[in-house]
């Protein structure tokens, strides 16, 4: 059997690597139009940082895992074609700011139709609005050689970044949606079930109709994000009342009906999925004439935006209502630990707020490149005269970032931040020295003993 995947991004790359790793009899080819990305997948410096990914790629690459820019051959040879291209939020036209932009998906469908000379299974891996499969099928059928059959399946990916390899090798469930009402549809579903059954227990492989599968992915992300916005809303109340949000989260999380996960109060959720998928859900609800349902879910985003701006306001008000010219050390820039991904990271929004207030940002992140930080902050590295940007100092070392700072903000929960020598950091900072722990990972009592003024979320 031959599998191909269009799109070698955060989802397509690791997912296909795992399939190849677990199924030596299947040839897996990942095709992307971005040559630099494909070159990186073929090098020792993979374009995605994920613990354990290097080992999986090294074991399978060249054996039954291939990365290429030649999508034509990849499509022609494949029995199953995964589509894992980006579905960013539309920035133009109807649904701008909410709906998913399906341009790249449609281009893939047209490629598949054009280059296929036999029937194939086409799998939506990207997160898509409900009923996209119908559009995909229509484009495939209208543009392909008559008589060919394209079975469209939905197989959303639930992996989280930073734990991709663990999530892929031991998934809570695999979800496969297809046309359950036809013989060909059931056969296609079974073909994909058999691929995953090489390493996933059958009872964890869920099959549904197409629309349930497409919708479940959006709803799973909406529910997860909702839990974070819920606990973050309570964090504000805790700060006013003297309750401790981590104690509250623990107390409610022990109720087996609520459960302990995704209740960590923070400076706000980020990542490529949560906001995008909720906006998409909101758009769908509006489209289908359900404004009350749309408003309900939109509030999850409103609360998250509020949490981020509340944090930057707290920094400014605590530093005597001005950060103009003051150095603020930002530890962490990625949207969570163990990834170099900065999409929708809270650090970017807090950073922009502080730059507007004329602060000097000294940013340290163990994995994020300076180029990415400048891009996200919408700043250039040099001014018109070619002098370095004086408002942003990217530091390789957290101590250097903190040196001469008035405040230190923890933006990402990197483990390495817990073990820093805070006495050394304190000694190098202006007094009073403020810590804003946006992730509640530090030992606040210890910091206060050293002399820091500590602000934590929900305490
Ligand atoms: C609730 C809490 O569960 C309990 O911990 C607290 O001490 C008191 O309030 P109770 O009101 O007795 O208990 O019933 P519960 O089983 O929680 O149901 C509350 C309502 O939610 C019922 O009308 C029930 O039908 C409804 N419900 C519950 C749903 O509609 N869907 C569900 O999935 C669960
Ligand atoms: C998420 C979903 O978890 C995954 O199933 C889906 O496939 C893609 O979207 P991801 O965005 O990689 O994965 O990361 P996740 O671990 O869910 O974290 C998202 C954001 O929420 C991060 O910014 C994280 O710091 C934040 N978060 C998470 C909290 O603030 N508190 C929590 O308790 C959990
Ligand atoms: P995700 O997080 O969903 O994996 P990414 O943006 O990381 O999204 O990856 C999507 C990838 O899809 C990019 O590398 C992009 O170059 C690739 N891509 C976009 N359009 C096509 C296409 N028509 N054929 C092949 N690859 C494509």
From TrEMBL:
> Which pathway does it operate in?
Nucleotide-sugar biosynthesis; UDP-alpha-D-glucuronate biosynthesis; UDP-alpha-D-glucuronate from UDP-alpha-D-glucose: step 1/1
Q: Which Pfam families match?
A: UDPG_MGDP_dh (PF00984), UDPG_MGDP_dh_C (PF03720), UDPG_MGDP_dh_N (PF03721)
Q: What is this protein called?
A: UDP-glucose 6-dehydrogenase
Give the SMART domains listed for this entry.
Answer: UDPG_MGDP_dh_C
Q: Which residues does the record give as substrate binding sites?
A: 157-161, 217-221, 257, 264-270, 335-336, 439
User: Which residues are the active-site ones?
Assistant: 273
Q: Where does NAD(+) bind?
A: 7-12, 32, 37, 85-89, 126-127, 161, 273-276, 343
Summary of the function given for this chain in its UniProt record: Catalyzes the conversion of UDP-glucose into UDP-glucuronate, one of the precursors of teichuronic acid.
The entry sums up its family as follows:
Belongs to the UDP-glucose/GDP-mannose dehydrogenase family.
**To which species is this protein native?**
Pelagicoccus enzymogenes
Is-annotated flag, keyword NAD? Answer: yes
Cited InterPro entries? 6-PGluconate_DH-like_C_sf, NAD(P)-bd_dom_sf, UDP-Glc/GDP-Man, UDP-Glc/GDP-Man_DH_C, UDP-Glc/GDP-Man_DH_C_sf, UDP-Glc/GDP-Man_DH_dimer, UDP-Glc/GDP-Man_DH_N, UDPglc_DH_euk
Q: Name one GO biological process term.
A: glycosaminoglycan biosynthetic process
Query: What's its catalytic activity?
Result: UDP-alpha-D-glucose + 2 NAD(+) + H2O = UDP-alpha-D-glucuronate + 2 NADH + 3 H(+)
């Amino acid at each position: 059997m031959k599998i191909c995947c269009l799109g070698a991004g955060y989802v397509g790359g690791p997912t296909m690597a795992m399939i190849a790793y677990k199924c030596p009899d299947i040839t897996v080819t990942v095709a992307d139009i971005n040559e630099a990305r494909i070159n990186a997948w073929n090098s020792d410096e993979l374009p995605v940082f994920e613990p354990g990914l290097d080992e999986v790629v090294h074991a399978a690459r060249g054996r039954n895992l291939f990365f290429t820019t030649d999508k034509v051959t990849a499509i022609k040879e494949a029995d199953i074609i995964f589509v894992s291209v980006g579905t960013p939020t539309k920035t133009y036209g109807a649904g701008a700011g909410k709906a998913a932009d399906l341009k790249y998906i449609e281009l893939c469908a047209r490629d598949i139709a054009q280059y296929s000379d036999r029937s194939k299974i086409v799998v939506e891996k990207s997160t898509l609005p409900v009923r996209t499969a119908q559009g995909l099928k229509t484009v495939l059928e209208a543009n392909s050689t008559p008589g060919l059959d394209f079975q469209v399946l939905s197989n959303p990916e639930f992996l989280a970044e930073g734990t991709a390899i663990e999530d892929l090798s031991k998934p809570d469930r695999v979800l496969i949606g297809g046309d359950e009402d036809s013989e060909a549809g059931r056969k296609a579903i079974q073909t994909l079930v058999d691929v995953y059954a090489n390493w996933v227990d059958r009872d964890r492989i869920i099959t549904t109709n197409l629309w349930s599968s497409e919708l479940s992915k959006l709803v799973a992300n909406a529910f997860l994000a909702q839990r974070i916005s819920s606990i973050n809303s309570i964090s504000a109340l805790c700060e006013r009342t003297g309750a401790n949000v981590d104690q509250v989260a623990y107390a409610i999380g022990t109720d087996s009906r609520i459960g302990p996960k995704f209740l960590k109060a923070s400076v706000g959720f980020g990542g490529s999925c949560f906001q995008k998928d909720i906006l998409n859900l909101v758009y769908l609800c509006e489209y289908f004439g359900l404004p009350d349902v749309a408003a309900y879910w939109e509030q999850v985003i409103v609360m998250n935006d509020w949490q981020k701006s509340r944090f930057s306001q707290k920094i400014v008000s605590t530093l005597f209502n001005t950060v103009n010219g003051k150095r603020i050390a930002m530890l962490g820039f990625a949207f969570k630990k163990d990834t170099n991904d900065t999409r929708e990271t809270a650090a970017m929004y807090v950073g922009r707020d502080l730059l507007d207030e004329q602060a000097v940002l000294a940013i340290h992140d163990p994995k994020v490149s300076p180029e990415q930080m400048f891009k996200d902050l919408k700043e250039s590295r040099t001014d018109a005269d070619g002098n370095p940007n004086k408002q942003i100092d990217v530091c390789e070392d957290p101590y250097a970032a903190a040196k001469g700072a008035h405040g230190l903000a923890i933006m990402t929960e990197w483990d390495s931040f817990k073990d820093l020598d805070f006495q050394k950091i304190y000694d190098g900072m202006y007094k009073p020295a403020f810590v804003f722990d946006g992730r509640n990972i530090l030992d606040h009592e210890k910091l206060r003993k050293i002399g820091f003024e500590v602000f934590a979320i929900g305490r």
